[in-house]
Amino acid sequence: xxxxxxxxxxxxxxxxxxxxxxxxxxxxxxxxxxxxxxxxxxxxxxxxxxxxxxxxxxxxxxxxxxxxxxxxxxxxxxxxxxxxxxxxxxxxxxxxxxxxxxxxxxxxxxxxxxxxxxxxxxxxxxxxxxxxxxxxxxxxxxxxxxxxxxxxxxxxxxxxxxxxxxxxxxxxxxxxxxxxxxxxxxxxxxxxxxxxxxxxxxxxxxxxxxxxxxxxxxxxxxxxxxxxxxxxxxxxxxxxxxxxxxxxxxxxxxxxxxxxxxxxxxxxxxxxxxxxxxxxxxxxxxxxxxxxxxxxxxxxxxxxxxxxxxxxxxxxxxxxxxxxxxxxxxxxxxxxxxxxxxxxxxxxxxxxxxxxxxxxxxxxxxxxxxxxxxxxxxxxxxxxxxxxxxxxxxxxxxxxxxxxxxxxxxxxxxxxxxxxxxxxxxxxxxxxxxxxxxxxxxxxxxxxxxxxxxxxxxxxxxxxxxxxxxxxxxxxxxxxxxxxxxxxxxxxxxxxxxxxxxxxxxxxxxxxxxxxxxxxxxxxxxxxxxxxxxxxxxxxxxxxxxxxxxxxxxxxxxxxxxxxxxxxxxxxxxxxxxxxxxxxxxxxxxxxxxxxxxxxxxxxxx
Length: 606
Description:
The chain is α+β, with helices and mostly antiparallel strands.
């Protein structure tokens, strides 16, 4: 605990706390902002990939859809299909029609490498036209469903998409597969005669699921995104990972809007789910990305940030400590010097020249003060002043080093805070006070000089108390040129601070009002401090009137005694106080002018 009494230790500790807390706050805020930014960037990236993937799928399916539309409006095809279902068509003519339709299908679809199979069939007449000699199983439940879907369509160019299924309707082993296909079907009707409702056939186009696998596997490899395709019947068409699934609540969210995203816990970890709806098929492309990789990256960033903050804090504290010790060195020299002076070593002197001009001025002022103090002591011994004057000198010699010590401590604090303007203000105020206190012969000065000394004293104290003191002053015309004992007002102002306003919250108001009344000068000093109890006020008035009852308040009694010694019984000191409201002290002295020969450059009288 003893080390904490050191100003260096306290400054270093305070700086360490401020710097540490500032850096920690900065690190936490930066990490939060970066985390939010990274998560938003991840969401933006996944939604963009989902939309792009959906567009790629739409582009591929649109090409097939356009091909089917082109096929459906082919006049030759419609004419051949009309002939194929004619009851008068002979077998040889039917074979010729089959060849023409097969060639037409080949010319349109032969270049598409992902086709599993394509054909046109009429389930009612059990007629099919396929790209090879394979046969179609007309009893296939899937084909029966497709035919039923298109049986009653009113217009031509109607297209339907069917999700993943096994193409079990191919009777040729060449076309059979263990894998699933996705089917696009279109009705073939006479688009040029809307009144003709005959359905001549349904064009079937089967393409491999492997096409989707290439698209989505590339995305998964590049970004780590898993994908699912869900049709409008909420059935899974394709999954990059067969184990992927969606809960019933997630499935409901998919169909609330055409696109969007949300986060939920999947497999014990937080994941981002983004989806987009195909304009061509109405299917949902769903992308899923785990936050595990993001969390790992953020953990690395957090650890790196903490390490850098620790290094920065250590270096900053070391630098601040070095600067504090270096800056406080002259202050500590002054403090040590004042302590030695306070012990009675008045023959000690400070170096007059230092690195800092302010301390040079202060050192010279202190040395001059000590020289004058020695002179005053010698003069006091030679002249054998009155006992009351000796008590006053003793009081002054005890108070000046204590006040000076507090002032130097304030200057030290200001230097740490870098408040150079306030240091200059305090230094010059202290210099004026020292100058004012050094020159004394008959101890009488104009009231304006005493008021100026009080203002310097309050300026210094206001720095110490962070500007809480508010000083109000008023004087009648010409009253400031009358004489008063030197250091009459300052002890009263000091009492008002330490025993009055220092114990209240808010602004501290100290007021001095000097008025001229007949042949007297009336000085009223008031404050808004804690005041006194009626018992304490009565006791203090008794001690003022009867010196034998005095037990303390040397400053207040000394002022009253010195006024009486100088002006006689016509000089009075009266006190009034109300608890929790403040105290008023009224000095009454005769009007007396200082002799001209006692005036000095600073306006003081000696």
